């Protein structure tokens, strides 16, 4: 019989394991098509759906199966501005922003002095010459100095019921910079819907902030083996370092923050985009969320984060590797009705 082996868990690729700076995720994407390449939604919860398995290598090929999906509510995004980036010594720097004239008043809950200068900035501007406000025409004139454009968008969180403060992020645009500017000019002040970015059956990369679990010890954080019962301390690492080098290496499991990290999961299938609320809302809605009120999508499998957390999506950027069961279409949503 083979000997039992259980090495400590926890990939070193994720170091340092610290809390994220912001809870609203931003995700990069690239494409040749001039359109928005990502979207934001709010995680609702998980349910079960049934359909026919079309994965030929699976033992249940051609049979009806039941699998878990995640419900994400996706109200339309409002384009509140255009951001231009210029070349820097290292990478790119934001050059300027052009803001839409018609913006949601809820943005003031997130940015107190949106479109108005604070008293501190007013005093600073009184000493300097007042800077001119950029327009879309100015972006056309300075197109040679600009590398690419992004869209500044805000979620319409007041439509989903559990909060009013919107989440604000940038959406990358496909195509060259001339096509990006043309698309951004058309969308300034308008709404972007999830079906404008994705289609049913496509594979997505999902980014979100995981559930926070606070400060944890090495047993829970890295799943190391406990010491024998007679040891002075059981829930510790047996040896943290040798005499030489005379230091504790960063690879040694240590207690610290667990959860509330940025994580990206790849190749999640988008099963359904719908506005039929009767199909999705059960007796009392979803636990820790309530009933779904706007447009929603169903994603095969689980995604990071608790209910009500903002999640970012983009089209899958990696080569697709199909594993396990694959459902072509969702035939039935299994929930308890009234």
Number of domains: 1
> Could you state the CATH homologous superfamily?
Translation factors
The level of helicity is 10-25%
Q: Summarize the biggest pleated sheet.
A: 6 strands, antiparallel, barrel
The CATH topology label is: Elongation Factor Tu (Ef-tu), domain 3
Topology as a string of helices (H) and strands (E): EEEEHHHEEHEEEHEEHEEE
Average predicted confidence as pLDDT: 90
Name the CATH class: Mainly Beta
Strand content: 25-35%
Beginning-to-end CA distance, first to last residue: 54 Å
Radius of gyration from the alpha-carbon trace, in angstroms: 24 Å
CATH architecture: Beta Barrel
- What class would the helix/strand composition place it in? mainly beta
Continuous helix count = 6
Question: How many strand segments?
Answer: 14
Structural shape = globular
């Amino acid at each position: 019989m083979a000997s039992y082996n259980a090495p400590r868990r926890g990939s070193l690729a994720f170091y340092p394991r610290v809390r994220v700076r912001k809870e609203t995720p931003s995700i990069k994407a690239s494409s040749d098509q001039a359109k928005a390449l990502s979207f934001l939604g709010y995680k609702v919860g998980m349910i079960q759906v049934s359909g026919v398995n079309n994965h030929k290598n699976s033992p249940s090929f051609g049979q009806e199966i039941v699998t878990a999906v995640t419900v994400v509510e996706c109200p339309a995004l409002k384009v509140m501005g255009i951001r231009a980036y210029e070349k820097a010594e290292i990478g790119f720097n934001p050059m300027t922003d052009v803001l839409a004239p018609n913006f949601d008043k809820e943005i003031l809950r997130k940015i107190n002095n949106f479109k108005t200068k604070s008293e501190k900035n007013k005093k600073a501007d009184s000493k300097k010459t007042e800077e001119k406000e950029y327009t879309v025409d100015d972006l056309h004139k300075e197109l040679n100095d600009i590398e690419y454009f992004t869209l500044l968008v805000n979620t319409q969180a007041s439509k989903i019921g559990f909060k009013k403060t919107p989440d604000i992020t940038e959406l990358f645009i496909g195509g060259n910079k001339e096509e990006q500017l043309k698309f951004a000019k058309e969308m300034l002040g308008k709404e972007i819907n999830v079906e404008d970015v994705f289609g049913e059956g496509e594979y997505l990369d999902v980014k979100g902030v995981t559930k926070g679990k606070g400060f944890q010890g090495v047993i829970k954080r890295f799943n190391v083996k406990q010491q024998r019962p007679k040891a002075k301390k059981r829930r510790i690492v047996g040896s943290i370092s040798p005499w030489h080098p005379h230091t504790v290496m960063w690879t040694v499991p240590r207690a610290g923050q667990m959860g509330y990290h940025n994580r990206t999961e790849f190749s999640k299938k988008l099963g359904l985009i719908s506005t039929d609320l009767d199909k999705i809302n059960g007796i009392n809605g979803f636990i820790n969320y309530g009933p779904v009120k706007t447009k929603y999508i169903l994603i095969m499998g689980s995604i990071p984060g608790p209910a009500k957390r903002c999640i970012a999506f983009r089209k899958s950027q990696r080569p697709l590797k199909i594993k396990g069961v694959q459902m072509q279409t969702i035939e039935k949503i299994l929930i308890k009705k009234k």
